[in-house]
Amino acid sequence: MPDQLTNSKRLWDSLMVVAKIGATEKGGSRRLALTDLDREVRDLFVAWCREAGCSISVDAMGNVFARREGTDPSLAPVLAGSHLDTQPNGGKFDGVFGVLAALEAVRSLNDQGIETKRAVEIVDWTNEEGSRFAPAMVSSGVFAGAFDLEYGLSRQDADGHTIAEELTRIGYAGDAQVGGRPIAAYVEAHIEQGPILEGEAKTIGVVQGAQAQRWYELTLTGQDAHAGTTPMDRRHDALVAAASIVTEINRIGLSVEDGRATVGMMEVGPNSRNTIPGSCFFTVDMRHPDEDVLLGMSTTLREYAAGIASEHGVEMDLREIWHSPLVTFDRRCVDAVEAGALAAGYSYMEISSGAGHDACYIARVAPTAMIFVPCADGISHNELESATPDDLAAGAEVLTRAIIELANG
Ligand code: GLV
Ligand code: MN
Ligand code: MN
Prior knowledge:
This protein is an alpha+beta fold and about 400 residues long. It folds into two domains: about 10-210 and about 325-409, Aminopeptidase; about 210-325, Alpha-Beta Plaits. Helices cover about 35% and strands about 20% of the residues. Strands 1, 2, 3, 4, 5, 6, 14, 15 and 16 form a nine-stranded mixed beta sheet that branches. Strands 7, 9, 10, 12 and 13 form a five-stranded antiparallel beta sheet that branches. α3 (about 95-110) links the parallel β3 (about 80) and β4 (about 120-125). About 55% of the residues are buried.
C-alpha cells in the first residue's frame, strides 16, 4: 500500500464547498435538519457519491446510504459516516467531516484500485444535532431500535412541523426499511469538540466510548401581572424561579468531577417588558461518564427545582425526555482504528467522547468505533470551530485504513 491512501486537498476542498451551504458571517454554517439547506447539501452529497460509483438508498427516516459494492455482495457492509445537519450557529466540521471523510475513503479506494470483500456504505444520519427536533441522534436511534419509527417521524420542531412532514417536503422520505439489516462494522470520524488532543499534542483520538446524557424539559407556570402595580411580595414570577434553578444547574455541573450541566434554550412568556413573566420553559442537558453520578445530579435538580417552585408559588412540570446511556465501543473496531493510526504514523491516544454521536446508537446493533481529530481551542457548536487540513486528512487516512481492515477481515 502507498504511504498515503487519501487525498488531503480533495477532502479539504469538499469540506469548503459544503461549508458554503448555509454559510454564516463569522465563518460557520447554519444548516438545520430537514430545511431547504439540508436538502441542498443532501443533493450535493448524493451527486458526489454517484460520481464515485455508489448506489444510493434512503430509508424512512431520511438516512442516506451510498454503497460501494464489495467483491462478495452477500456479506454485511461496513458503514462510515456522520451527519450533515448543524447547530443554529454551527461550525464547518461537526458531522460534515465524518461524512466527507467516508466519501474521501471511497474516492481513495477507487483511485488506488482497492477492492474490498464487504461493501462500504457512506451514511448521512438525519437530525443528529437535536436542535431543530429533539432528541439528538434520533434517526440513528430508530435505526438501532432505540426508538420506534412512529416516534421518530412524529418529532416536532418549535413551529409544530414533524420530521415526517419535512422529510416529504424536501424529498427525502425514503422507502428503505430503517435498520433491521446486518452491519459488519460502523466507524465515525469526528472533530473532538474538546481540548484534550490539542493539549496533549496528539493527532488522532482512538475513541473508547461516550459518556451518558439525560435531557429534561422544565416548564414553570406562575402568573402574568402588571410590572408597575404588582407589589414584589405578591408576584408569581416564573422567570425569577427559573433563574435560581438555572444557577443551581450550573452548580450541580461544577459540584461533581467531570460533571456537565447546561441550560441551552429558554422561552419566557408573555415576553413583554412591562409584564411579570407568568411562564418559563427551558431545557436541561446533563452528562457524566458514570450513570450513578448522573442519576444523583438529576435527583438534586428535581429536589431543588421543586423547592424553588413552591417558594415562588409557581407550578412546575419537569420531564425527562431523553436518556442516552454510557457507551463502550467494540474492541476489534477500536483496535482497527488504532492499527490505522500506527500504520499511517500518526501520534495517537485513547480518548472518551464528551459529545453524543450517531455511533452511540449504532454501537447497539453493530461493532462500532470512532476516530477523533483535534479542533482549535476545543471549540465546537460555534461558528469559529476550526481544524487544520492536515489533522482532518489524518483522520480520513485512519478511517480509510480501518475500513479496509474491517471490510476485508
Ligand atoms: C451533539 O452534538 C451533542 O450534543 O453531543
Ligand atoms: Mn456531530
Ligand atoms: Mn454537534
